[in-house]
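Entry:
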Amino acid sequence: MSIPDIKEVVKEKYGQAAARTTAGGSSCCGATVNNGCDDPITSNLYDSSQAGQIPEEALLASLGCGNPTAVADLRAGDTVLDLGSGGGIDVLLSARRVGPMGKAYGLDMTDEMLALANENKRKAGLANVEFLKGEIEHIPLPDNSVDVIISNCVINLSSDKGRVMSEAFRVLKPGGRFAVSDVVTRGEMLPEIRKNVLLWVGCVAGALEENDYRAKLAAAGFEKIEIEPTRVYRIQDARGFLSGQNIDVDAIALQVDGKFMSALVRAVKPQSRSCCGPECCQ
């Protein structure tokens, strides 16, 4: 697909997910979708204490593959930006973590998700939340304005991940933290197999291989890059979906088993270096 086509498919699928949630259903898009959302990718990501802090619709609208707010280094007074904020679950949880002196932004390009997120903001009664319309490749915030960037299984959907990481680096303050959950692959596999499994793992996914992810973050300027697997998907997780695609699952087991994972990706924007002599200020 061309870049505009990918973007339109993502908009359509996430708009449909928002509509299902508004109608009282589940937004899940995994292999064994049902109202209970019992697939191994999107289920059981938030504990009961977190679920109790947000409207039910925010939880139902979650299409994530992790829980970045549980592990991100959020501090009172921080400004947080969630890339691809969907129904707002991670923004609302972040807003409570950073407190009234902090700020939590959500960025999304889908009108239906933004409407749902703003309704969830109203129900949560949080004043330090703002949802922005835009694309994660073109973040509508100034340079050096954010302390922490989070995201939940969205960067893999972008057709220009290098641009996303460069934009994230731009808006982060010196010393700012990048802590996102995303789908990542490990090692090489046949392209047609990779494509089929990624469609299951992330709806419209284009996940990076873990070393490529590191390289793109480093090229954007990030340091202290870490990729920590949080859920590694086994062949039995994908069996139902792949069988439905007329694929001999057992024949490709070694190509799939353990090579797809949800991961927490961390990195840091370096502190500004002070000028120590006339040569560095020229």
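Residues 198 and 205 are 5 Å apart (CA to CA).
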